[in-house]
Amino acid sequence: MQISPDSGSGSTARIALTGKLDINGAETIAIPLAALSGAKQYVVIDMSGVSFLASIGIRHLVSATKALMRRGGRLILLAPSPPVLDVLTTSGITDLIAVAMSEDDVQSLVGSATA
Fold first, then answer.
1. Strands 98-100, 42-53: parallel, antiparallel or unpaired by DSSP?
2. Which domains does the chain have, with CATH numbers?
C-alpha cells in the first residue's frame, strides 16, 4: 500500500491510496489517516488505485469517519474500483461513509471547503 498526498487546502485533506488495503496496507495508513482525521474537517481519499479491501481496512475507514463526524466533518471515498465498491456496498459501509464517483460529486459533498 502506498499513500500519496494529493492536492488539498484549508479544512480539506486529500490523499491517494494505491495497492491492497489488507492488514499490511491498513498498518501503512493507520497513523496518517488518524492524524488527518484529527486535524482536518474533510478527508478525501482517492481509492481508484486500491485493488483489494479487507475488513481491517474498513475498520480504519470507519474509525476515521467517526472521528471526523464528531467534529462535524466527513470522510469521502473518491472513485473506488468496482471490486472495492462492491465490498463497501455489500458491507453496508456506504450508509456511513460517503462515496463520490467524480470530482463534481466531491464538490457537492464538501461544498466550498475545497476551494
1. unpaired
2. 2-107 (3.30.750.24)
Which residue from 103, 85, 101, 104 is spatially nearest to 93, judged by alpha carbons? 85
pLDDT tens digit string along 82-105? Answer: 999 999 999 999 999 999 999 999
C-alpha 103/C-alpha 105 separation (Å) is 5
CA–CA gap between residue 12 and residue 94 (Å, rounded): 20
pTM, whole model, 2 decimals? Answer: 0.91
